[in-house]
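Worked example 3 (structure in, sequence out).
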């Protein structure tokens, strides 16, 4: 917090102006195919709501820490790209990102990607990223999930129901170059035929 004194000598007044440099102005800017958002929940939600399939949302680091009151829901083929896991930590006591592709996203083989964040469950959240794929009887799975270059940390210590990344339904994709630190369960993959078509391009690093 910076406090400045402005002297208006011709009026004989002393005016104090308070300038808060710790908080960047919240905003979602840009247009399809590229959007830029400050890291607050409302601005990212606004960009996600405006983005079309194939769009990218670049999230700025802000002051490096952000608390979200609930999950960012990704239902269309968008890429949510953070500034780097070393530049932005997002905290919540619940799920931070919920990937739940709708029928057009599944039918159109749209890619949903989450990259470049640290997600922190504050020792409480059982799941940090959840994925809900196509239903068990669906003729086509959700094929294009990408979760990469994130750090997922500090989940709750209850084993039942936990998983830093938790997937249900028919999901195919790749999870690579993520760091897991203080997570009771790293990956929880449930559904029918989950392991088919998954690709392991790089090892998952655990601390």
């Amino acid at each position: 917090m910076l406090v400045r004194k402005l002297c208006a000598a011709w009026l004989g007044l002393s005016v104090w102006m308070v300038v808060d440099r710790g908080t960047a102005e919240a905003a979602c800017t840009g247009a399809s195919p590229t959007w830029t958002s400050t890291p607050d929940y409302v601005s990212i939600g606004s960009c996600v709501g405006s983005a079309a399939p194939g769009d990218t949302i670049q999230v700025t680091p802000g002051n490096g820490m952000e608390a979200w009151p609930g999950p960012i829901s990704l239902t269309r083929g968008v890429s949510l790209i953070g500034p780097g896991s070393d530049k932005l930590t997002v905290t919540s006591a619940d799920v931070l990102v919920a990937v739940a592709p709708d029928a057009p996203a599944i039918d159109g083989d749209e890619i949903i990607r989450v990259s470049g964040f640290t997600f922190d469950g504050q020792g409480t959240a059982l799941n940090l990223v959840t994925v809900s794929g196509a239903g068990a009887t669906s003729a086509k799975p959700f094929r294009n999930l990408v979760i990469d270059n994130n750090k997922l940390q500090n989940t709750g210590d209850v084993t039942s129901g936990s998983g830093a990344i938790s997937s249900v339904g028919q999901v195919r994709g790749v999870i690579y170059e993520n760091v897991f630190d203080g997570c009771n369960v790293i990956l929880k993959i449930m559904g029918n035929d989950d392991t088919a078509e998954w690709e392991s391009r790089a090892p998952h690093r655990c601390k």
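Notes: The two ends are 36 Å apart (CA to CA). The chain has one domain: 25-206.
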